[in-house]
Amino acid sequence: MSPRILAGLGAACVAASLALFAWLHVTPPSAGLSWSRRTISQYALLDNGWAFDAATLLLAAGSAAVLAALVRARLLRAGSGAAVALALWVAGLVGVVWFEKHNWAVGPSMSGDIHRVASLVAFLSLPAAALLAAAPWLRDRRWRGPARAVTLGGVVSLLCFTPLLWALVTQPVTGVAWWRAIPLGGVERVLGLAEVVTVLLLAWWAARARADHRAPATVA
């Protein structure tokens, strides 16, 4: 299958995922949750939680298709740091669905702990993948434009993650629980949107490429 078709399929899955997430925000009972305080994965515990699972798995499937497109287009090599990081993003998304978050109505759980780790892996792996994928192409005459756009997506995603890091680091000093120190739900939604846009930028890049060129020897 050509990189363009794979990238198109990936982008379509990501777009469908965004539509489902948007639907969750306006449909009861999930519409009643606070966008600023409640994380998106809280939706999985509600009656329409199937939509959260479907949206997250669509995002994972779309991202996997984009990864395949990038490899087919020879923009990155299978087994490279960028490919591994993008695969970890996909695995993290699947883990978020497979292991539900803590249901505080009944207390903490092992599933909730794994869910939190999977979320962290996903959130950090995607910007790392974007930066590693773009780095070898930043001086390439043909692809420096897309590479810079992908780099920007990765940098913005990392910047969106910094409030979470700040909350964790300052908790011992302030005594305020990290999930209360910031509007966690709002931060997560902005971060998630930035990362989804970055995936779409990777898809756009792969769709423009053809498999008749070689990745630089320095590709990560």
Automatic annotation (TrEMBL):
Residue ranges of the TM segments: 52-71, 78-99, 119-138, 150-169, 189-207
Claim: Transferase is one of the keywords in the record: no
Designated name of the protein: DUF998 domain-containing protein
Lineage: Bacteria, Bacillati, Actinomycetota, Actinomycetes, Micromonosporales
Originating species: Spirilliplanes yamanashiensis
Keywords assigned by UniProt, alphabetized: Membrane, Transmembrane, Transmembrane helix
The UniProt record lists the keyword Transmembrane: yes
Database matches in Pfam families: DUF998
